[in-house]
Amino acid sequence: xxxxxxxxxxxxxxxxxxxxxxxxxxxxxxxxxxxxxxxxxxxxxxxxxxxxxxxxxxxxxxxxxxxxxxxxxxxxxxxxxxxxxxxxxxxxxxxxxxxxxxxxxxxxxxxxxxxxxxxxxxxxxxxxxxxxxxxxxxxxxxxxxxxxxxxxxxxxxxxxxxxxxxxxxxxxxxxxxxxxxxxxxxxxxxxxxxxxxxxxxxxxxxxxxxxxxxxxxxx
Amino acid sequence: xxxxxxxxxxxxxxxxxxxxxxxxxxxxxxxxxxxxxxxxxxxxxxxxxxxxxxxxxxxxxxxxxxxxxxxxxxxxxxxxxxxxxxxxxxxxxxxxxxxxxxxxxxxxxxxxxxxxxxxxxxxxxxxxxxxxxxxxxxxxxxxxxxxxxxxxxxxxxxxxxxxxxxxxxxxxxxxxxxxxxxxxxxxxxxxxxxxxxxxxxxxxxxxxxxxxxxxxxxx
Amino acid sequence: xxxxxxxxxxxxxxxxxxxxxxxxxxxxxxxxxxxxxxxxxxxxxxxxxxxxxxxxxxxxxxxxxxxxxxxxxxxxxxxxxxxxxxxxxxxxxxxxxxxxxxxxxxxxxxxxxxxxxxxxxxxxxxxxxxxxxxxxxxxxxxxxxxxxxxxxxxxxxxxxxxxxxxxxxxxxxxxxxxxxxxxxxxxxxxxxxxxxxxxxxxxxxxxxxxxxxxxxxxxxxxxxxxxxxxx
Amino acid sequence: xxxxxxxxxxxxxxxxxxxxxxxxxxxxxxxxxxxxxxxxxxxxxxxxxxxxxxxxxxxxxxxxxxxxxxxxxxxxxxxxxxxxxxxxxxxxxxxxxxxxxxxxxxxxxxxxxxxxxxxxxxxxxxxxxxxxxxxxxxxxxxxxxxxxxxxxxxxxxxxxxxxxxxxxxxxxxxxxxxxxxxxxxxxxxxxxxxxxxxxxxxxxxxxxxxxxxxxxxxxxxxxxxxxxxxx
Lengths: 219, 219, 231, 231
Known about the structure:
Structural class of chain A: alpha/beta
Largest sheet of chain C: 8 strands, mixed
Number of helices of chain C: 6
Order of helices and strands of chain C: HEHEHEHEHEEEEEHEE
Number of strands of chain C: 11
Oligomer: heterotetramer
Structural class of chain C: alpha/beta
């Protein structure tokens, strides 16, 4: 079973040289720490920055330089600043190659719910609806089951949707799965020490298992 | 009767302090020379400039600094450069207060034709269709009659239209006229030495004459 | 042409109860701090505020919420704000949550004279309820309308007396698109300079979009999530 | 990530017969001179060229027209160009004239992922024929579609190896909106610098929109209408 860092490490392997990547809040933010040194990747922050760097050293924070999570950050050489309309313009135009974000639920046809729980204070969708509606390549980073032990990979989402038919891949503490265009979670890899049976038990939606399922290589 | 300079001078009196103005090619370009010194006016050039100044001195031409007529120009202090999308964005959003352009024909309901003559080589509408469709305040600078002696102020245009219901005011060598919202050319002023009768004879569309028509004050 | 005002109180003098305001900034970054302070002081009420966020309890639009000056917030994310939550749950405050890109693009539409735009954001979700859906090239889009706001209030880094604006780093965010979208646009700047001091090639908001400008004072520029790494 | 090409010939190597190209520039100002020369040299044909103007007989897109490489021009104004006129009248060349703002906004739409936009330009004229007309707030608008071009070819003043671009004066014109609109965008620049040499606040086209960049050579920068005033 993976911890959050493990999920982030596994997702980092999906990032290819030359990718422009948008990282959501939470586990996706950690992914930045594990991008291989030998590839060039540019991080987009939807508040209006390409070329996001690491957090600043203490004392070097600049109130005018933040990311979409409102955290102080730095800018790498070659950064570009733009306004919110252009930021979501480039997202809608599919110039961002990969979007990584968290989710409360994903359905077997790729629907995602990650912004609202009825009865709880709703903070808003921020840029999530724009990102999931436009990205051509979306990876969801999340726990396979919720705190009540219920699967978050469902036949259909029970929570209000953020977007439909959009999730392409899911990485959880247990497994890597593709969401097939025709529907269904196709099991690709098991987390170290996790059995197919455990994944089956934790997946409420249609799980597709073909042949031997390899264990993740996180070396 | 006015010459081109006279038409330009008369139109210049319509420009108010603080106006952003777009000047078309021909007589409208001359208007810039007669803007009173005591008012601040910013000229927009739709290729992407606010703050257009006079032509450069010989030897100071810059190939990268041109107006919408492709002429070398200068930029005044406080100029701003922008791309073509923003240029027509501000035009469509009615941020430009006054548009002055030439015409081949104007109809009594404010239609304008100024881009195409059937049977002749058509060069294109450039930005004219955008300007006339969006400007809240359009003044046409033109000759009252064409070279064949036919009126250019018509019941309806015979040439392909550039825009409809858009012209607000017309200044010719003979007169200043408003185009009324309900239709008709309302005679406001006569050019020096021109009689109402001459204007009547030169106007094919519905001409509205109420009371005494004063002579233009060009002092 | 005189666009220069001496301070926020004068620049906002004719904003009245019930108006709709666009307010620039993202989180607490790039906020028109002086104008917000002046709006709180002026005490006008029943405002509709369009802004990506709603500030925190004691900074940004949170200050206006605390005074119950806001009737309706149109935002994409309303963050951590106890007073906001209280007013929302009690029904005192109306909130319309819209996707961030939709918010930005509805501003752009207003500034570019486009009555409506199409975006896929929100298709298949509750955001789509009551909206026209249209398919282009096999993909569904929502038609979203340009904002129609009385005033836009933005913060820039530098500006000149003709209203040309330059922003700094990610404090740019929504400010340029909102500056274009107001019927009347008020800009507060850290530095107010003479025409000609800003490079024409580097102006983010041309002065034609800005009706009033003043040099702001005492910027706090609060940081919402101070995050650092070890040296 | 390597976006840097050594010259125009390499940057355009995979442009082939029948493709649709967006070409930046206004008149002869801000033209991708090197790429046009390379396209002429390569001799590909049946191109659809979207560009505000068509150059003059011996400069700009006029050079491609002379070689009969262009099947169709989509422009707002085709200016003084004898060869253009001859081909048009003989039926060799197809021409679609569209309003300049519509041209720019259809580029913006492509670059901002909006399938269509609304503009009042052309309502009531022959430009409206066959197009959807829609009334918003009492005013009619045409629905115009985003361009769908294989390549965009633009000219900038400075660029860095990540594809970030800065334009100079009115040579900016259509270049930034076309740069955003190409499936593949090629930028030629007068100065090619390293990442970090351009101020992030002053970049006009972020590198995400630019796939290939090279330092151009021998810019002629011809002036179409040299106009001066007496000293």
